[in-house]
Amino acid sequence: MIARITLFLAAMVMLLAGCSTPADPSRNVETYLTARVNRDENTIRRLLCSELEPQLEQEALTFEGVNGAKIEGMSCRRDGDTDRVICAGKVVADYGAEQNEFPLGVYRVKQEDGEWKWCGEAE
Amino acid sequence: MLRRSSPFVLIASFACAVLLGLPAQTSQAAPYTITSPLPGSVSIFTLNPYQLRPAHDKPAAINAVPLDQIVVITPAVKANIRAIYASGLKNGNDPRAFSTLGDSSVAGGLFLERFGENDTHLGDYTFLTPTLQAFDHSFKRTSASVRIGLHSWTALNPVWADKKRCEPNENGIDCEFRLNKPSIMFIHLGANDTANNVFDKNMRKIVEHVIEAGVVPVLITKADGPGSKTRANNNSMRTIAGAYHVPLIDFEKLASTLPNLGLGPDQVHMTNFNKVDYRQPALFRSGHAMHNLAALIALDAIWRTATTID
Fold it and tell me: For residues B112-129, b (16+ Cβ closer than 10 Å) or e, as one string?
């Protein structure tokens, strides 16, 4: 009996997890922002919306030539049921003795091919 | 390319010059047609008498380097300055505004903003005073397109724009254009760009973007200390300036006359100076002081070129 209940609960958790992922674009935005800092061009290409494809190279080079770029305190959430994702936190990067900070902001997302894509900063 | 609209213009121009006691070649008060080499940008505008400025005696060199080797403005560049400037005015650019684009070499108020300070003395370069006065507003503001660590490949990236002043998805250059409406932009990049092929490609994009906005780009070479990994970028700057017929400040030549090339201990950033007083010999040994003077001379030359005819 206990085994059956455990199996049922596990199935429910998996089902709910599967249902909630496509509805919440914030995870993909976090993945995109992380990929940009890590210069992970494959992930950038996968999560960049089609209208921004001409900017792929620019996006991939965002933190090229900057040392120790890392994201601090990133927390993203969808703005209601809009196409906007609001992110707190910042990217911190060094260049020699100089330090640069890039605050995270509000981003536009678009659903394409069944997946939420990052589509630039929101107006 | 200039085409006189009427023979009357020549007579009027000469009479005006005689009355004002100015050289005839700098005088005009009637409309001229400026034909641009840029596609679809033909402009007609009038140069007003207040723009007439007499020629001045001026030093022919700085630290024995001839001025025309420091500020490179060929006849082809002159023609293009006029064309770009005219198309910019047509788009609403401010004829008395300039902007700067660059990295830490020009950040922190060390580039051109120094001329916005009180009690400046130009020494042998007082002929630059009208230019200092005409662009007064630009000397007293901080550019939105200067940022520590900026590269040629991030200058057009909105992530690198100042989020307090720029709009979403707006890159630093467009942001600066919106805020200042410049007719001239000084570009000092390359100290951070270790990949020369990427630098060259992106500098061309920047220059095209700036020209498209009707802003005259002024490219600046940098001093390169021993072991510099970005030395090739200066040659790119020279090549691009020649290819696009835009002004060049070949600061590397002037820097070669300075102690340690005008560089500080890190071999990247220039040595600073105290007061803006070009009567003091110490300024002629300072990287930033010479960098600023060369830029002011270039601004004067470009402004004169844009507002007069040969």
Answer: bbbbbeeeeebeebebbe
Query: Which residue has tokens 């894509």?
Result: A117
Mean pLDDT, residues B150-154: 94
CA–CA dist B64, B60 (Å, integer): 8
Query: Contact at 8 Å (CB) between B139 and B112?
Result: yes
Q: What is the DSSP letter of A116?
A: E
Q: Which residue of A has its CA nearest to B169?
A: A121
Does the structure show a pLDDT above 60 at A52?
Answer: yes
Q: Calculate helix-pair angle for B196-212, B172-180, nearest 10 degrees.
A: 30
- CA dist B35 and A94 (Å) reads 47
Among A39, A104, A121, A123, most B C-beta atoms within 10 A, so best to mutate, is A121
Question: ipTM of this model?
Answer: 0.82
Listed in sequence order, the residues at least 6 apart from B243 whose beta carbon sits closer than 8 Å to its beta carbon are: none
- Of the partner residues B149, B151, B193, the one whose CB lies closest to the CB of residue A98: B149
Q: What is the mean pLDDT of residues B269-294?
A: 96
Mean pLDDT of A28-48: 96
Sort strands B184-188 and B216-220 into parallel, antiparallel or unpaired: parallel
Q: Name the band, by pLDDT with cuts 50, 70 and 90, for residue B167.
A: very high
**pLDDT mean over B75-93:** 97
Interface mutation target, options B106, B150, B151, chain A, most CBs of A under 10 Å: B151
Scan for tokens 């510099």, then name that residue: B228
* Identity of the residue in A62, A103, A122 whose CB atom sits nearest the CB atom of B157: A62
